[in-house]
Every structure is written in structure tokens, then in C-alpha cells.
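Repro case for the chain-ordering regression, as requested:
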Amino acid sequence: MRTRPLKVALLGCGVVGSEVARIMTTHADDLAARIGAPVELAGVAVRRPSRVREGIPAELITTDATALVKRGDIDVVVEVIGGIEPARTLITTAFEYGASVVSANKALLAQDGAALHAVAEDHDADLYYEAAVAGAIPLIRPLRESLAGDKVNRVLGIVNGTTNFILDAMDSTGAGYQEALDEATALGYAEADPTADVEGFDAAAKTAILAGIAFHTRVRLDDVYREGMTEVTAADFASAKQMGCTIKLLAICERAADGASVTARVHPAMIPLSHPLASVRGAYNAVFVESDAAGQLMFYGPGAGGSPTASAVLGDLVAVCRNRLNGATGPGESAYAALPVSGMGDVVTRYHISLDVADKPGVLAQVATVFAEHGVSIDTVRQQGKDGEASLVVVTHRASDASLSGTVEALRSLDTVRGVASIMRVEGE
Amino acid sequence: MRTRPLKVALLGCGVVGSEVARIMTTHADDLAARIGAPVELAGVAVRRPSRVREGIPAELITTDATALVKRGDIDVVVEVIGGIEPARTLITTAFEYGASVVSANKALLAQDGAALHAVAEDHDADLYYEAAVAGAIPLIRPLRESLAGDKVNRVLGIVNGTTNFILDAMDSTGAGYQEALDEATALGYAEADPTADVEGFDAAAKTAILAGIAFHTRVRLDDVYREGMTEVTAADFASAKQMGCTIKLLAICERAADGASVTARVHPAMIPLSHPLASVRGAYNAVFVESDAAGQLMFYGPGAGGSPTASAVLGDLVAVCRNRLNGATGPGESAYAALPVSGMGDVVTRYHISLDVADKPGVLAQVATVFAEHGVSIDTVRQQGKDGEASLVVVTHRASDASLSGTVEALRSLDTVRGVASIMRVEGE
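-- result from build under test --
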């Protein structure tokens, strides 16, 4: 074994960073044996140096992250700051100064992954980011290495623990969105400002990363259709139950049937209770991958948290250090397929639509005609009348989102349709 | 991209090999883009050259596997023959002649993995074998790379599709073992001679491989305790149901509580219906991994079959080819921890024991005394009497297998115990 240690600079020492530092210290011998050389924590860049950081020698702490990555003797920079800047500049500088990078930064990778990969390649360095998607669950590595000889057609997953916790609570207790959110906040599963989670921004960033790797195509955050889950109601869960379904916020990356384009989207959807994703509880994550040869695979585990995320970071750290000792680099960006990313209108799926309609003869015929005119085939209709008002629940066969939108627009203009109570996609069948 | 192709020799062209050849041909452009150089099928060694092999040029077919691996221009040998010989000699020769090896051979790796890794290392070559365990499910790579910075404490899984199909059928239809086996045979899920599957040999080989990688310790097939599932009865399933459990043939690798040793075993066990492994149906496989930092992860997918296994082989082929272009090798054997592998007596778990006893006063007291004398604490007892005979079902708290064996031996010598109807371990709690 080489005795000269590989030097690691840690940028950020919050929930994840402190766990990375702790494990690097307590498991130093194991890491050395697995890498083939010791790894040394050479510096830790933080914003608040006064905070006590157990187990990290005070002389390693610095507020000057730029100076740390510019030291010139750093082998690997571990970036767990998050956000776009200063992370982007620091990572770029790290490559320029000869280091490889391990990052957990989903927002940055979804926005600027291609540019960062290019800088890494220019400097013969590695950019690894298993921790950016679904915490501890090995997903990036299986997609870009284990399935490298296969053709992935679909990725369907729960990649945000906060929203899964809220939806699971709504499902099991009958609570409304706000009540379930309050519980999640009280228990520490939701942040004080939950926007990034509940509006699907976090899941959309992960979806862009997954789609890019799965389809060997650049998919940016802007390419991902995004719909949050703040408008999911207890009534939607009741409707889902009647269909033998539950509701999950899903990340879906799909290759079109003709293989010539791909789509990426995040939105709440009904899935059958028999689908393995339906039983993913609490803050857990799970991702289904469908490919030509392997068939259906599922990966399940904790999608967030200090320790699980640190596990993913350290797995990457070991790989990057081994590559460095080998004088090699691991797989970089693979975007050779360069498939066009279609918009939501081209997505084909099923829909569950609740309409408030006048309770009089001929309404169903009118509604059915609108669906037919837009080429959307109806699977089932259920009508419930009460005091001159009625609700009509329509479940469609597979249709394009564009056709469905046209249908809904036309329905709204019917005198007999008082309102469209909810529209939800049905997935996983 | 390099234009000179990497040359691949395929040993074996059965269900898996023919799929590997097919995908190498139909997806040649994708593989080239992902590897950075084209890959060329340079030869295919078979036993029966007369069989028509669609899509494989006749001039590539040979019956002389030894000559093929000795050609000297082969970059990667893909071994999908199975069994110990001639596979072992061919793989060793491949290394000696400068090739890296991708293998799906669980029996060989469980028996001679350490020796083969040593030869690979001597020749700076790779030995990859994702396909040897759980078919298409990425498991070897996540364990040896994604979790390389973590400490794995437990691997608990269903790694044999045939037995899971049989047990699932017994559970859902109430059929007995033989009837379910006959169905599995008729549907092609069980081989004409099902011994390797139903007696747990296949699962034991996979368990040895998983334990070795998980614990960075050499674990050979002989170190794995093995009990088949041919004696599981419909009555056992009825007992399991009463406990809110089902029965699975489980592969279990565990680090002892003190961390100083490990155990590896395969046997049927009851697991709670709430456990994710309980809902793994048909011939699917799934493996739970518990580690210090990541927590609980699960990997799920098809555990066998030509296409899924080919997917795993090709993922390895891409990785090995990339390493070759890089002039590097991937992670080799990691056995530095060298923990002792304890026997079954040291395993600590819970037990479900059915006794046929005389239906008279004092029997329960006698039985309970025997458990107490052997230090096995009882969780629940259920007694059902009928015509002077009674059955007594005892579920214990956690105890060592040695203590439990002592208890059962003592119970058999009691006059009032007519017989021990079944003993089954209870896992996954």
C-alpha cells in the first residue's frame, strides 16, 4: 500500500459534511485498505468557523474555500455546500488546480452538469455525484455502469422523501395537505420553507440528472416538466382508493415508443396499490428502472439524511481515489445519443378526471362527445348525483397530454360542466 | 474514439451467451460510444458447433475454447459456461494470455474466487462477475463500489428465483412442495433435476460471494450453512400465516454483534408480511443490505434468465473494456478484514417450533423448563388440544442456534413430547 496519503478538501460541514468527516476519521483504516492508500482530511471550508465541530482539528477549519481548493496539493474536493454559487466556481477551480470532485449538489448538476463534466475532462479529473440523487441509494453508478450494456427505456421513482412522507401521511390518516405538511415540519422531515420539495423543484433536478444518464442525452432542469403536490386533496386520495390506487409524487423519464425522443417530468400521479412503489412509506425513496435486457429493477432506501448521504459521498470518494492511484478516470459524461427532449404535450399516459356537472339527461353524452372529438378514449365513467348536481369521474385509456389538455379546455366551455375538480395522471400500469 | 476494436471471446453460447452475442451485434454502436472503442466478437467457443446460432457468423464458432483464449489478441474473455471445469482452467489461461475476464459463474467464484483474483492481479487484469449473483440486479458493484466507504452489517436476500417461485406458489395456493415444484417445472422455472436450487446449493454459492464482498473477508462455499426448502410444508405456511408471516428461502450474511466475526447461511425462514422481502413474488430476486451509514437498502429485479443475465454481463464488459483503454484495472479482491467465519451454532435469531405433545396437565411446564434450562427465552406459546394429543407452538426470543439445538434435543427426550413437527427460524424483524 502507498503510504503517502491522498488529500481531501471538504467544502461544507453541515449535516452531510460533518458525517463525511466523522466517518473519514473513525474508518480511516478501512478506507485506506479499500483505496490502497490512506486518505487525509486536509482542510474543511465552513461559513461559521466559531461553531464547535467535534472530532475535526481546529487548524483544518477555514472560511476561505477558494484558497483551500487552490492549495495545489488537494487530490479530491468533496463539495457538500449545495446551491449554484459559490459551489460552481469552487468545483471549476478545483479541476483547474488538479483535483477530482465528489459532489452531492443536485441543483448545480441539473443546471450545469454538462459544463462541469467538460472542465473535468479537460483536466483529466473525475466528477462523481452519487449522493445528488436519492441519498444513499446506489443509482447513478448502476445506471451509468451496471446498465452500460443495456438500453434503459423508463425510470419511474420516488426521489423526494419530504413529499413522500406528506403523501403517505395523507393516505394513511385521511389528513389534508396542510395538516400533513405541518406534521412533516414538526418531525423535521420538511424544512421551514418547504417550497423546493413540495413544488417539485428538488425532484425535478434529480429527474434531469437521471434522465441524462439513463438516455445518454443532455437533459437540463428546464427540460423537466414540473408540477408540485400542494394541490393534492383528501378527495383525490379517496378517488385513488376507489381505483385501487394511491398517490405519489413521481419522477418519470421515458423514451418515446419510437425511441426517437425522450421526456422527463415530475408530478403527482395515481399508481396501483399492487405496484412496488405504492408501498414505499415515509421519507424513503425508491426508483424503478425498466430496460430492454434487464427488465424491471428497483432500488430502495433512505433518500436523504446526513449518514445516508455521507455513505454515497464516501463510496464516490473511494472510487475517485482509486482512479487517481491508477492514473485513470472513471466514466465521464455520456451524451452521445443526443436525443431530443420532448415537452409534456407528447407524453402519453392515462388520466383520472373529476368533473362537477349538472345532474340532467344528456350530460354524459355531451362529455363523452368532447373526449371522442379529441381522440381520448374513455376506459371507465362513474356518475354520482345529488340535489341537481352530479360528479362525473372519467378514467381514460392512454392519450397524449396535448389531447387531454384540449379535451379539458373544451369540457370547461360546456354549460353543463360546472367545474373540473381534479385531473390526475395514472402511472405504473 | 479509438477505431481499433477490442476483441471479445465468448465461452459458451447457451441462453445467456447467445443473448450476449445478440446484444453485442445489435447494440454495437451504443457499446462503442459508451466504451470509447468498438468491441468485436472475435470467437465463440461451443460444445455443439452444428446447432444453428442466429446472427453469429459461422467462422466465429469453434469447439476449441483453449485455442481461443490462447490466441493472444483477445482483450476480454466472457465465460458463461458455468461449472468448475473447464471454466477454471480457461479463465486462468485467459489471464495468462493477457485478457481480462467477465464471468457469470457463481459456483466457480464461490469455490475458487480468491485464487482466480490472485491470478488476475498477477497479470494486471480484471475479473468481474456481476451476473454471478441475482442476474440483472446490480449488487456486486453497489456492494464493492457504492458502499466502499460504509460498513455493511447484514445482507438478507432472496437470491434464487426457482425456490421463490415454488414458495410463492405454496403461499398463494396452499399447495404442497411437490405440487408447486411440478408447476415450476412445467412452466420452465425449475430444471429437470432441481437439486441445485431446492437444496440451496445455488443460493449458498451466491451467499459466499456476497458475504466475501460485504465483509472484505474470504468466505468460501464450505463456510456457508445450507438447508434446502424441500421439507417446507403447507402446515408451515399455515403456521406462518398465523404469525403474520410468510416463508422464503433466505440468504443471510451477518456481522456478529461484537463485529469480530461473520456468519453466512441459507435456509427457509419465516419473515413478517410487512417486510419488503415478503412481497417478492414469482421468480424475482431481492436483496436487503443494512449498513452503518446508508441504513437499509433494497435491490430488486429478475434474478435469472438469458436477457437479464446478459445485461449484467454486458455492463461488466463495458467496465472492463473502459479499464483496458485506461490502462487500469477496477477493484480486485478485497479480503483485508479477514474476519473469522463462525459456524451456525453462533448464529443468533428467533425460532418457531411446533411440537406434538400429550394433552395432559404439566406438559407446558415441562417444555418451558427445558427452554429455560438452555437459556432460550420464550416469546409466545400456543396450545391446541384434540383427542388426547395436542400441538404446542413455541416462538422464542433471540437465541443462539447452539442453544436452540440443545433445547430441541432435550425436548425430543421428554416422554410427553411425541415429536418435533417443525423448526423454523424467524428473520427480518
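Ordering looks correct now. Chain A has three domains: 6-135+306-326, 140-302, 347-426.
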